[in-house]
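2024-03-11 09:14:02 INFO worker-7 job=invfold-0412 stage=load source=structure_tokens
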């Protein structure tokens, strides 16, 4: 056990945490998407059937204290989950008191979690990306850290296990190969919600230059050149930044789909159905080479923000809001904020969310795995063996089960009826004046005092309507959402889990692989490492065992397909 915990600490810092115009392309739903949509009614029926039993407090006794290691909230209106109405309501319904333990916002959560696990100390419930643990989730169970709930406690979570029996897509996503259930994450009944991010372009600049919204990489390049040369912001200065990104690379990651590539993540081969691969391996490395070469060319031509590799999101946003940026990345919720912020500098500004561009990959590929994953198979909350030792196990399971009921998910997504939301005669929920008309805070800030409608990270069934009420509040955001959804999902992988032995070997290989790519990719784009080194990099990755690592995930995919 000690050996695996030390390995867990070693790999934690190196792996990346996997945390949405014209010419639309018909969406390509995956098998997971179809199964999830078909079975959503059975999930709702299951949660309704068990809601009354699981949401009742255990008895008229003192609440059970449970500890929960989780990232902390930090918004303009609330800095601690304990301050929120939805947590207080869940505590009351489940007869528990939750003690949140975790690093402050801005700290490295994964490092903090790994250090805690390596020290041998735990919380009763623990949120983590369990692929980071040596041996994965199965290894954490074998090491006596995580409880196999399905083995001894299935009767304590009737709602959860009812969902698994009623929805094959979710069951395949969250259970191990032998049927073990130990991880609890947010669930998606409508995969369209996953279309929450993508790239945009300044539609008003295009109109001024009499250019259409681009649908191909070639057309996009022409747009960027025009933005650089023709002063679309009209201030008489050559200050336009055609394409902006920051050190998170979200815009570049989205752009990679045009080459049929998913940045630093497993993916399906665009040319070979059913084959799992990694982006430098696609088409013998030719797509990776062309992608890096193209970015290097654009950077040299100053079409890409010259500071993208060093600036943070706030610095990128400042450039967007001062009418300098022609294209970049956005979450759907950014559209309302940025359109409002741009009014002073550009009253007629229009941000046009783009359908993913078509390039060497041949299709308008999305790079957002949320579009095909009804659940996060590796990243979520587990109950630890500490809960068994300190006697809080049943309280933890009661709380978790409540969170999956219709009542519990409504509490998390909307808060409390009559306080934070009301229900109309048609059954539709709307936010109350307490949320929408606060004299100090804006609606999309105030909502977090009452509910958690927009983020995953907790066990719950995500409410599309609650999310949309926050994210899709303008015509631009609605159109962007539609365009992001109108993408081909053919290179995205369903939720896959490695076996314990596979996970240890995979993490060892991919720590070195991702480090090598990370050290070279940015330098090659910037030109500080010559492009002639690309073949050497590809050879180095193969020598490190990249093909072997992909064979492991191929096995996981094949097992998933047979579940």
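2024-03-11 09:14:09 INFO worker-7 stage=emit residues=563
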């Amino acid at each position: 056990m000690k050996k695996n915990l030390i390995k867990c600490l070693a790999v934690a810092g190196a792996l990346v945490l996997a945390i949405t115009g014209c010419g639309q392309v018909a969406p390509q739903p995956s098998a997971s998407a179809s199964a999830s949509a078909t079975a959503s009614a059975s999930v709702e029926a299951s949660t309704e059937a068990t809601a009354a039993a699981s949401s009742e407090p255990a008895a008229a006794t003192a609440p059970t204290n449970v500890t929960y290691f989780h990232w902390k909230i930090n918004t303009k209106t609330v800095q601690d989950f304990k301050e929120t109405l939805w947590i207080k309501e869940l505590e009351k319904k489940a007869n528990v008191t939750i003690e949140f333990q975790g690093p402050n916002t801005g700290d490295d959560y994964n490092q903090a979690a790994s250090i805690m696990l390596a020290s041998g100390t735990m919380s009763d419930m623990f949120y983590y990306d369990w692929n980071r643990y040596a041996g994965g989730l199965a290894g954490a169970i074998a090491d006596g850290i995580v409880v196999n709930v399905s083995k001894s406690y299935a009767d304590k979570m009737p709602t959860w296990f009812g969902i698994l029996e009623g929805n094959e897509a979710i069951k395949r996503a969250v259970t191990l190969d032998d049927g073990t259930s130990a991880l609890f994450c947010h669930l998606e009944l409508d995969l369209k919600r996953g279309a929450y991010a993508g790239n945009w372009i300044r539609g008003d600049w295009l109109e001024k230059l009499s250019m259409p919204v681009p649908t191909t990489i070639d057309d996009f390049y022409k747009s960027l050149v025009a933005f650089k040369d023709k002063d679309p912001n009209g201030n008489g200065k050559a200050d336009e930044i055609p394409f902006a990104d920051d050190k998170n690379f979200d815009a570049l990651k989205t752009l990679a789909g045009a080459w049929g590539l998913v940045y630093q993540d497993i993916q399906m081969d665009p040319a070979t159905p059913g084959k799992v691969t990694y982006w430098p391996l696609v088409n013998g490395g030719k797509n990776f080479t062309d992608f890096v070469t193209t970015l290097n060319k654009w950077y040299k031509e100053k079409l890409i923000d010259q500071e993208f590799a060093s600036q943070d999101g706030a610095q990128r946003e400042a450039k967007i809001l001062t009418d300098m940026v022609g294209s970049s990345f956005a979450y759907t919720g950014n559209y309302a904020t940025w359109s409002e912020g741009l009014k002073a500098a550009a009253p007629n500004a229009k941000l046009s969310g783009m359908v993913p561009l078509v390039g060497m990959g041949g299709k308008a590929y999305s790079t957002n795995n949320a579009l095909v994953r009804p659940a996060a198979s590796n990243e979520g909350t587990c109950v630890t063996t500490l809960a068994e030792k300190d006697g809080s196990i049943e309280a933890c399971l009661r709380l978790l089960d409540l969170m999956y009921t219709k009542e519990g998910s409504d509490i998390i997504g909307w808060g409390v009826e009559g306080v934070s939301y009301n229900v109309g005669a048609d059954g539709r929920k709307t936010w109350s004046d307490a949320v929408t008309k606060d004299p100090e805070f804006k609606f999309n800030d105030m909502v977090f005092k009452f509910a958690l409608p927009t983020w995953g990270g907790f066990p719950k069934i995500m409410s599309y309507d609650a999310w949309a009420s926050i994210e899709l509040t303008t015509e631009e955001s609605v159109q962007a959402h539609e365009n992001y959804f109108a993408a081909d999902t053919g290179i995205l992988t369903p939720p896959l889990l490695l076996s314990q032995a596979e996970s240890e070997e995979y993490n060892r290989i991919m720590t070195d692989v991702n480090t090598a790519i990370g050290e070279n990719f940015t330098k090659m784009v910037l030109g500080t490492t010559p492009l002639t080194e690309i073949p050497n990099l590809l050879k180095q990755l193969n020598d490190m065992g990249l093909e072997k690592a992909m064979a492991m995930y191929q096995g996981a995919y094949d097992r998933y397909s047979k579940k």
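2024-03-11 09:14:09 INFO worker-7 stage=report msg="The CA atoms of residues 343 and 349 lie 7 Å apart."
2024-03-11 09:14:10 INFO worker-7 job finished
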